[in-house]
Amino acid sequence: MRDDATPRADALAKATGQERYSADETPPGCLWAGVRRAGIPHGLITALDVAAARDTPGVAAVLTRADVPGTNRQGIVHKDQPVLCGQRVRHCGDAVALVVAESRAALAEGLSRIAVDFSPLPGVFDPVAALLPDAPLVHPGREDGNRLAHGLVEKGDAPAALAGASADDVVVFDEFHTPLQDHVFLEPPNGLARLTPAGLLDMVVSTQAPFRDRFEIAHALGLDPMKIRIRAPYLGGGFGGKDGATVQCLLALAALHAPGRWVKMAWSREETFLAGYKRHAATVRLRLLAGRDGTLRALSGVLNFDAGPYAHLSGEIMALGMEHAGGPYRIPHTRIEGFCAYTNNPVGGAFRGFGVVQAGFATERLMDALAVKLGRDPAGLRRQNALCPGERNCAGVTVEAGTDTAACLDAVMAHPFWTGREAWKKAAPAFTRRGTGLVAIQNAMGYGRGLPDAAAAKLELTRQGTFRIHNSVPDMGQGNASAFVAMAARALGQPAHAVTCVQPDTRTCPPAGSSSASRTTYTFGNALLRACRAMREKLLARAALALLCDAPERLELLPGAVSDPATGRAVPLARIGLMLCRDDRICIDQFVMPVVDNPPDTGREFKLGFPHRFYSYGACLCAVEADTLTGTVRLARCLVSVACGRVFSLAGVEQQLQGAAAQGAGLALFEDTVLDRGRMRAKDLGTYLIPTALDLPDTRCLALDDDEPTGPMGLKGMGEVGIHGPGPAVAQALYDATGIWLRRLPVTPQAVLEAMGGLPS
Amino acid sequence: MRDDATPRADALAKATGQERYSADETPPGCLWAGVRRAGIPHGLITALDVAAARDTPGVAAVLTRADVPGTNRQGIVHKDQPVLCGQRVRHCGDAVALVVAESRAALAEGLSRIAVDFSPLPGVFDPVAALLPDAPLVHPGREDGNRLAHGLVEKGDAPAALAGASADDVVVFDEFHTPLQDHVFLEPPNGLARLTPAGLLDMVVSTQAPFRDRFEIAHALGLDPMKIRIRAPYLGGGFGGKDGATVQCLLALAALHAPGRWVKMAWSREETFLAGYKRHAATVRLRLLAGRDGTLRALSGVLNFDAGPYAHLSGEIMALGMEHAGGPYRIPHTRIEGFCAYTNNPVGGAFRGFGVVQAGFATERLMDALAVKLGRDPAGLRRQNALCPGERNCAGVTVEAGTDTAACLDAVMAHPFWTGREAWKKAAPAFTRRGTGLVAIQNAMGYGRGLPDAAAAKLELTRQGTFRIHNSVPDMGQGNASAFVAMAARALGQPAHAVTCVQPDTRTCPPAGSSSASRTTYTFGNALLRACRAMREKLLARAALALLCDAPERLELLPGAVSDPATGRAVPLARIGLMLCRDDRICIDQFVMPVVDNPPDTGREFKLGFPHRFYSYGACLCAVEADTLTGTVRLARCLVSVACGRVFSLAGVEQQLQGAAAQGAGLALFEDTVLDRGRMRAKDLGTYLIPTALDLPDTRCLALDDDEPTGPMGLKGMGEVGIHGPGPAVAQALYDATGIWLRRLPVTPQAVLEAMGGLPS
């Protein structure tokens, strides 16, 4: 079933720069829109003078809160984020005014002439402190104060189990911190909008959710969502950071005030750092009970997420973290509590790993602590407790066939990186200490229960007899469009060059959910394969007319033709393409991801997205070298195994694992995540360093034999699972190398130096 | 399952004259086209002078054979009929020249000024004589001479069985004649054509086969079939007479010579009698062997069909007649031979009953002869030999469940018309003799083996949340469009007024076969129900998005809305209609009629359409009164039972049975079918009398409980079966009344008078 021969369909266009991103589109004579940001984390606007800006030559419009016709509220679930702020600003990136100008220079000049006076307010910058009674309120008057979300996931009776622990049992407890993280996609948020004479708002946006965007814009601006058209070309990265409103409402607002003209908005890297969504910083406290033999008995813990000032998907991210907090382990009693607090930090939002990064780091670290306490090999302890099909995870959901953490660990443990680790450590060069860590990873696929994880796929037979997929789920670089081309080609028995894929357009594509949650290839892929089946049946039936065949099921769909084995006659697909009327050249079919049938009686606070049914699993080995002179830690080796259903494209799986591991390594070792009163200290890519190819080893990948019966060609989504390894694996490796016990990411050279007996910071 | 409450969807529009037929369309400023017909049955054109016609004021073009750009050949299977004759004319209706004019008056004037000189040739007017060696040849140079088609259908060894008959056995033999018949549809052939500036040939035609017409026209005129668009509004009757080329090629040719302008052609009744297709006249000789107890042993026979000068579907009509020649009876040995000959009579073509009328009359008459010879009740003899499921018919095909001639006979025999027949006869008024006849009837459904009996159905959700069926099979009055509305309404759980049906248009509808062969409701209905299932699934999946439902299968499609029983929330279909992009509001699906799996090893001459798998069955009682003074025979009572799968609409079934019985009674008693040297003696409706409502009794109908598992809602086609009863039932009744032994239809008063001892003619 593996398709390793087909080159990625978009490889050439991307390698040669021919592929068009929305950032590449600048219609002649288009206007430019830009935003004046608050620049302070919390305060009241006492004066906003836009007169000078309006009088600036080349400025077409300066818009403030008063110019927003609708609710002015955006947000995927909770609509609490203003398009343009009224009186209160709640983080440095808040939008205060919108300028539309004839040129980028006029835009810059206009933005600079906006005068804002603020009355600063005390801010709250810690998600735990934010819940204290006297914390400054981000949304005054709100019943729950700064508590945006709270949830409890329970199975069995963890408190009783912990209370009843005997002297022979072992309990470990610790608190862990993971920082915010910027997505650092190549292409910052941007888009175009135009209000046509017919009243259609025509938009081209770098977005992960074109179909939802229509409703978001319509709600915020008081428009008819069906009069909004969103096109989503290939994205230069997304990672969750384009799953939600970035430029959409602002751009639409600008277009409403410049009827008939294209308006473009393109955030700079600096604006993206300032105003874009971030991975939630989190504090996780866990307590784990095990028998002396290493058998896990109970887990209890609290997760605190920093939402920033607006909800975005914070509650759902917290819930997914809680659902993963037990790891891929068999634990009879669990009690996971979650809190999500408003702060005046950057807005927390979706990010590859979606709460699981935070929980997984803590769980894996605590497994290491248990191993230390028991004097056990960390890998063996994990293997011993690996969750098996038919058992219940920490949310009480019986996990599916294909859950095989032990096999994932075994695959890595059979690799020379593991078997030869001691020799490798001993061969460490001077001033270097080496260590190896091995952790288990998991990530759920899809939206989970409570809302449909749906996609509809449109497949077109062209008049030339080739096939065109109308993709409804944006390709942000992960390669789903190419996977769809390869899938359809295989399903239809056609060469890959006979299949093309056009990117989402809400006017011509049937609806699908967002490109997120490791769901696109599974959900849209299933819809596409159903459309392929319908197309195949149609082609045979139509060819039967030309071939005078009374039993279409006897016909064979061959490359470029339908043939009748009984007569040897064939009709070219190009002829069928010419024969059929337009509507008859199209097949649309849909798929909705199955959900957990009998959900456990817990997590009732979570209306949407809890619990999940399908998971991909894996294991990750990281080997590090710590420099005893500088404290710098280098990721020397990285190996990831994965069980994610059948492998359709090994190259595709490897690309996702490598990219995810690099992003995980960035969080662990590279990225400057320090906040200074609600603002990232690093303001650009000169200071916010992400790992380059030279900074990382070649990540080795091991894809296990697996099969997901509900999956398209047996596959499951796996775009996120690889990000969970490097954080805890680097921490374990660092302990192996230096004895330093890491509770916080990223790793700082100071802490490492100190642990190795070098210079304290 | 019966739908007797829903009024026929087109009833009001038709009753009030609002419905538009193609004859109703006369675009302002359109040209008129008309044909100069040969007027002689056989001859060579020695001179054709169109100069005066061309010079006629208002004449736009006069076209002859030299102006035809393609093959000039038309014909559904064999392309042997010229659009415009070259040198030879082969029947009186042959088209010699085509005139296009600005007005009907100019057209008439132009036609009258065409001067044609013929050199007459001896004609051949009898299909048996046509096969003799010295017969004049209709197509000189043709290898098979006048023999257009020949076939043999055998099962067992009928010659041996007949040769081996013992003295105790009974053999009956006779020869029967059925005449040609005109369809006498209300709306004579007509249509419109226009060559658009884009090169599209846009046509509106009263046709039973819009999709095939494109290929017919393209072949004859050397055009691209995909650049021809045919729209087929409701037909004012068809009965097979519009299944093939009438105006199509002529009209297209005219339009090619008047680019940009609409051209209209409308045949008069007289032109239709002259040039239109007719039911084939036939001579059938049958020999039937039975045991003394009435058990049928063997049947042997020869069918001779009069094709006229062009093939049309003559071979297929002959084959279907042969396939039915054994009647719905159990006969171990059969040998049926068929011949079809070219003559200079009117062109034989498709007509309701399609060869079965001819064969059935002979078979049923011979059963009567056997009953007389055995001194048996004709009904009981039929019942004794009724074919049962699992047995093989005369073509060797094992008949399906639902074959129950005995039940059809029983239903009629339980009716007072049968049980009270002797009392009724005794109550005959003065100068009147009464008699009752009861025969079995059957008719296959669909094209049969060798070509796909296919249809694709397009179902559209409108933006208003209602449904629109795009019918691909013309409704010629039989009511299929209304049946489709009712079927879709039921399948979708919507009120009938929420479903509309638009008539065929090759540009917007997916393809389907012709409206013929009792196939439309079955084949298109199945395709439509599949499209309805796809639509239902789509609606639930799309509604799930609006209802945030993770399990669309839980949703319910209610009238006008999709509802979630779990939450009580609903989304109106009108909202879904607005939500979906255009292509997503359409579902297309298709169906191909199953064929006989293991066809018997006979009838190999028939490439197309042999044998058939599905039949409808019935029985027909006719009671007649013969006037002893005038010889006039009046059909006093008519009762038809039918087993045709489930009855979806009893009114629809009754309408078909009543119409078919009337058409059968027309052939038996009313229509002047006499030919005079290749031309019908009756030239208009003043002389070709068809029965009116006043001439006929109310035909009573009995629809049996039945079910066809492959049928849409369990039904089978039954538009033809009812025509087979009156011919043989009237003959049997007349024998019962008068002792006259009828071998020929129609019944003539002279023959009746003579038999009753009245005045000989």
From TrEMBL, chains A, B:
The answer, when asked if Oxidoreductase is one of the entry's keywords, is: yes
**Renumbered residue ranges of the record's region Disordered:** 1-25
| Gene3D superfamilies reported for this sequence | Aldehyde oxidase/xanthine dehydrogenase, a/b hammerhead, Aldehyde oxidase/xanthine dehydrogenase, molybdopterin binding domain
Return the EC number.
1.17.1.4
Q: Show the InterPro entries listed in the entry.
A: Ald_Oxase/Xan_DH_a/b, Ald_Oxase/Xan_DH_a/b_sf, Ald_Oxase/xanthine_DH-like, AldOxase/xan_DH_MoCoBD1, AldOxase/xan_DH_MoCoBD2, AldOxase/xan_DH_Mopterin-bd_sf
User: Which EC class heads this enzyme's classification?
Assistant: oxidoreductase
Domain of life, per UniProt, equals Bacteria
Q: Which GO terms describe its molecular function?
A: iron ion binding; xanthine dehydrogenase activity
Q: Which residues form the Aldehyde oxidase/xanthine dehydrogenase a/b hammerhead domain?
A: 16-122
Alphabetized, the UniProt keywords read: Oxidoreductase
Q: Does the keyword Lipid biosynthesis apply?
A: no
Q: Which Pfam families match?
A: Ald_Xan_dh_C (PF01315), MoCoBD_1 (PF02738), MoCoBD_2 (PF20256)
**PANTHER family for the chain:** XANTHINE DEHYDROGENASE, XANTHINE DEHYDROGENASE SUBUNIT D-RELATED
Q: What is this protein called?
A: Xanthine dehydrogenase
Q: Which organism is it from?
A: Solidesulfovibrio carbinoliphilus subsp. oakridgensis
Q: What is the lineage of its organism?
A: Bacteria, Pseudomonadati, Thermodesulfobacteriota, Desulfovibrionia, Desulfovibrionales
